[in-house]
Design a protein that fits this description.
By secondary structure, the chain is an alpha/beta fold. The chain folds into three domains: 3-255, Rossmann fold; 260-411, no CATH class; 537-654, Sandwich (Immunoglobulin-like). 46% of the residues lie in helices and 16% in strands. It has 20 helices and 18 strands. It has helices spanning 3-11, 20-23, 52-64, 78-92, 111-125, 138-143, 177-195, 200-208, 234-237, 259-267, 275-286, 301-318, 325-330, 332-344, 349-358, 371-375, 382-390, 411-523, 527-533, 642-646; strands at 67-72, 95-100, 158-163, 224-230, 251-254, 257-258, 298-299, 369-370, 394-399, 402-407, 538-539, 545-558, 561-572, 584-591, 599-603, 611-615, 622-628, 636-640. The longest helix has 113 residues, at 411-523.
Length: 655
């Protein structure tokens, strides 16, 4: 493709009317023709300068090949070359550029669907008739016999699928399992499309339905694919070579802009800057020595755009008609200082420390750091690194198989070093201030402690005298108190003992009196009084009693005839009697029977508490009054039925 052909293509600009909605919103204008860190868009094509040769080379490659790879370092303006340089040329030869930046925001992104949706959207904006899309693959969509694109002049249009910032498919596209699956699906369909081969699933289906093959065009590939990727991600494309061999064939590298091309970028806005000042701006950005030809110097387009935009903003703020040499010289350092300050202003201070401490040597030269080492530092994240790269402050390059980070330009060294030195001075000043305050506080504290020590000593001497006097008084009081306490305790002990003996005597007297009363009531046959006195004594269920009856073999007459006479005995079971301090002194048996009315029978331990009587009947109720050897222990009573103890042969109704 000759230069004359490209000239003719460029000359057709007046004949091609592109709908305004296709071009989008401008990022620049005549008053501010430099976009800074933003990319030039297609609508900005009149302001896009300095990349004509690269744009034409890329146009030739796209026109010739089905798949091509456009790569370069970050900050060289790949997106600007595509949108403001290549796209206008494509439209002039009836090609439809479809700009796509894959979106991985969804948990399960439909990347294939995004491509088809972008094709339809760009076709609609460009007023191009496009085939409808369904759930079919990209190959099927673009290879159907009716899959033609027609413009308003009824001419066929070829879609050019431009996948910009393709490196994100290797980062964001692998950030989760679901996204990785979607990425693999997209790689498969992209490979089929790039290699012009029908998908395996379609070939299998056509084997079973051969009559459907006529619906597809297998030899016609009416589309182009352009992949734009950062140079440091080129190794990632190697994973696609097996299924997409052409990914390694057709490539174009975008390099840094030389000084002459950079001068075109600056001097184009002749209404804002004179040619002599424009050259000084280029040399300022290139950081080249005076006398070195411009074409021998290299310029980063993004940095050039930042400097021009900063200078122009300064000009507008001052109300000056043009950017002057004085404005440039007076703000040589401030332009980049402002850029650096704004770039890191919204990031953690740890990110700033990474830049200033690890990307400059101690003596102030540019240094690099491995990406993985940077990410191991506190609060330094991949997102913050990506922002610094996108903002053109840092450059990410692969060296020896290791991704490394460094400042994007030596021109930033002075700004970063000044910021570092200023921060170090501030830190040293703050440290010295804190140390001075700490020393002053230490002296004040020492003085307060000395004053307190003196006061303590004076108070101690005073208190020692008072304590001595007080101790003497307390000693005297102690002896007096001790004597009084001893006398009081002796008196209280004697009183307690007397009271105790009095209570014992009273209790003994009460028990004796109660015992006499119950005996008296029994002898006087006052059963009511007996029953009233019994509850005064505790009930004893532990002592068990026994009874025996011995026939004396004689009878006595009475009103009903003759009755057999027996000898009856009452006594406790020995094993139930308490021992030791609880030993029983004697037991009194209260009995009431026609044979001997209101009889009292008493026995002590010498008789084993046995009592007996002679008569003709047993006693159905006996109250045993148990009195103990310990006079302080209250008597207890036990009620029992003698007849029951003698057995069933003794009828209680005979009593």
């Amino acid at each position: 493709m000759t230069a004359e052909y490209i000239e003719r293509v460029s000359a057709r600009a007046a004949e091609i009317e592109v709908p305004a909605q296709v071009l989008g919103t401008a990022t620049v204008n005549a008053e501010n023709p430099w976009p800074g860190l933003l990319a030039f868009r297609e609508v900005d094509q009149d302001y896009f300068q300095g990349r004509r040769a690269e744009t034409e080379d890329l146009f030739r490659l796209v026109s010739r090949e089905r798949l091509m790879v456009f790569f370069g370092l970050s900050g060289l303006g790949k997106s600007s070359v595509l949108q403001a340089g290549l796209f206008p040329l494509l439209r002039r030869v009836n090609m439809l550029p479809v700009y796509i930046r894959l979106d991985f925001a969804a948990a399960q992104p439909d990347l294939v669907g995004q491509v088809k949706a972008a094709i339809l959207r760009q076709a609609e904006l460009a007023e191009v008739e496009a085939p409808a899309s369904n759930s079919e693959s990209l190959w099927e969509y673009l290879h159907r016999e009716e899959s033609d694109f027609w413009n308003r002049r009824n001419r066929p249009v070829m879609p050019v699928i431009v996948l910009d910032q393709f490196e994100e498919i290797f980062t964001l596209g692998r950030s989760s399992g679901e996204r990785a699956k979607a990425t693999e699906v997209f790689f498969g369909q992209l490979a089929d499309l790039a290699e012009g081969r029908a998908p395996v699933a379609l070939r299998t289906w056509l084997d079973d339905h051969p009559q459907e093959a006529k619906k597809f065009s297998f030899a016609r590939h009416h589309y182009k694919i352009l992949v734009s990727i950062r140079e440091d991600f080129l190794p990632e494309l190697e994973v696609l070579r097996e299924r997409m061999p052409s990914i390694a064939l057709n490539r174009m590298r975008l390099q840094r802009m030389n000084g002459s091309s950079a001068l075109q970028v600056v001097a184009y806005a002749e209404n804002l800057i004179d040619a002599t000042v424009a050259e000084k701006v280029v040399r300022f950005v290139a950081a080249g020595r005076d006398g070195v030809p411009l074409e021998s110097q290299e310029v980063e387009p993004a940095l050039l755009s930042v400097v021009c935009r900063e200078l122009n903003n300064k000009r507008r703020g001052l109300g000056e008609p043009k950017i002057t040499e004085g404005l440039l010289e007076g703000n040589r350092g401030q332009v980049l200082t402002d850029f650096y300050t704004r770039t890191i202003g919204d990031l953690p201070v740890e990110v700033r420390n990474l830049i200033e401490e690890r990307m400059l040597t101690v003596s102030g030269f540019r240094d690099s750091i491995a990406l993985e080492n940077a990410l191991s530092m506190p609060l330094v994240t991949r997102s913050s690194i990506d922002q610094l790269v996108e903002r053109r402050l840092l450059r990410r390059e692969e060296r020896g198989g290791v991704q490394r980070l460094e400042l994007s330009h030596d021109l930033l060294i002075g700004v970063v070093r000044a910021s570092r030195d200023r921060r170090h001075r501030e830190e040293e000043t703050e440290k010295a201030r804190k140390e001075l305050l700490a020393e002053e506080e230490r002296k004040r504290k020492l003085l307060r402690e000395q004053q307190k020590e003196e006061q303590r000593k004076r108070e101690l001497r005073k208190w020692r005298w008072l304590v001595a006097v007080f101790a003497l008084l307390m000693l005297m009081l102690f002896f007096a108190y001790f004597g009084a306490q001893r006398l009081r305790q002796q008196a209280e002990t004697a009183a307690d003992e007397a009271n105790k003996q009095q209570q014992i005597a009273k209790a003994e007297l009460d028990r004796i009196q109660d015992g006499l009363l119950i005996r008296q009531a029994a002898l006087s046959r006052d059963n009511t009084k007996v029953e009233a006195l019994i509850p005064k004594f505790g009930k004893n269920n532990r002592v068990e009693f026994m009874a025996t009856a011995t026939d004396l073999h004689y009878t006595i007459p009475d009103a009903v005839g003759h009755r057999e006479i027996y000898r009856f005995e009452l006594f406790p079971k020995p094993e139930t009697l308490p021992t030791g301090q609880n030993a029983v002194a004697f037991i009194t048996y209260l009995a009431d029977h026609p044979t001997f009315q209101n009889t009292l029978l008493t026995a002590g331990p010498n008789r084993a508490f046995h009592v007996s009587y002679i008569g003709w009947g047993c006693l159905s109720r006996i109250v045993a009054l148990i009195e103990y050897a310990d006079p302080t222990q209250a008597p207890t009573v036990t009620n029992f039925n003698m007849c029951h103890l003698l057995g069933h042969s003794w009828d209680p109704t005979e009593e």
